[in-house]
């Protein structure tokens, strides 16, 4: 079954965010391996809004009051990011995410909320602890290392990390390769 067919079946052929029935297509919830599990099935309106988060229409996103209760982690992740971008703290407080789902959500926050304080770029681990150059971290989930052809297992220790100029990412060496790692999937040792 193609990803699109899998998503059609999972969603019942409606937008997984707003329940619209027209213009549906798969949307990878970054950072994503483009699998059905890490994608959502959404309409053109939702997609445009997600790709232009500076123009979020709060009327449209009342639909999150229903879709945030989805059992699909990828939908929960997008609901979390949208509610954050909308500044809807009341709904966010009700949205319970498993730790790894929350890490995923925080790894790709919509751009209205990244560095919105205009301050220095700060990388935080899965617990919100600030990371510094030279720290040692452990992976909290298995990560497929694209291009290097191996999977870094959960629990892998990465010593002497380097910070990047993007709050979402750090750099570290695994199996001798320097790779970019999502800070929210790390735990400071
Ligand atoms: Zn929609």
Could you outline the blueprint of secondary structure elements for this entry?
Blueprint: H1 3-11, E1 25-28, E2 39-42, H2 44-51, H3 64-67, H4 73-86, H5 89-94, H6 99-107, E3 137-139, E4 143-145, E5 150-152, E6 157-158, E7 162-163, E8 169-174, E9 177-182, E10 186-188
Antiparallel strand pairs: 1-2, 3-6, 3-10, 4-5, 7-8, 8-9
The protein binds zinc ion.
Low-confidence stretches are 113-119
Query: Strands across the major sheet, in which order?
Result: 6-3-10
Structural class comes to: alpha+beta
Radius of gyration: 17 Å
Strand content: 15-25%
Provide the helix percentage. Answer: 25-40%
Cα separation of the termini: 41 Å
Describe the protein's architecture and organization:
By secondary structure, the chain is an alpha+beta fold. The protein folds into two domains: 3-107, no CATH class; 137-188, SH3 type barrels. It is globular. The termini are far apart. 26% of the residues lie in helices and 19% in strands. The relative contact order is 0.12. α4 (73-86) packs across α6 (99-107). The longest helix is centred in the middle third of the chain and has 14 residues, at 73-86. It binds zinc ion. Zinc ion (ZN) is lined by residues 15, 17-18, 20, 42-43, 45-46.
């Amino acid at each position: 079954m193609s990803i699109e067919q899998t998503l059609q079946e999972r969603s019942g052929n409606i937008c997984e965010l707003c329940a619209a029935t027209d213009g549906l297509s798969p949307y990878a919830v970054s950072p994503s391996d483009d699998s059905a599990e890490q994608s959502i099935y959404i309409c053109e309106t939702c997609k445009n809004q997600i790709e232009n988060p500076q123009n979020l229409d709060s009327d449209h996103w009342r639909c999150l009051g229903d879709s945030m209760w989805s059992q699909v982690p990828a939908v929960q992740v997008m609901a979390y990011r949208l509610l954050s971008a909308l500044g809807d703290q009341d709904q966010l407080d009700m949205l319970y995410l498993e730790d790894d789902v929350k890490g995923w959500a925080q790894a790709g926050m919509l751009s209205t909320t990244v560095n919105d304080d205009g301050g220095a770029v700060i990388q935080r681990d899965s617990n919100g602890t600030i990371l510094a150059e030279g720290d040692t971290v452990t992976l909290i989930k298995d990560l497929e290392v694209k291009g290097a052809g191996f999977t870094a297992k959960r629990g892998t220790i990465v010593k002497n990390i380097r910070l990047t100029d993007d709050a979402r990412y750090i750099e570290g060496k695994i199996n001798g390769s320097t790779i970019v790692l999502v800070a929210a999937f790390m735990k400071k040792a």
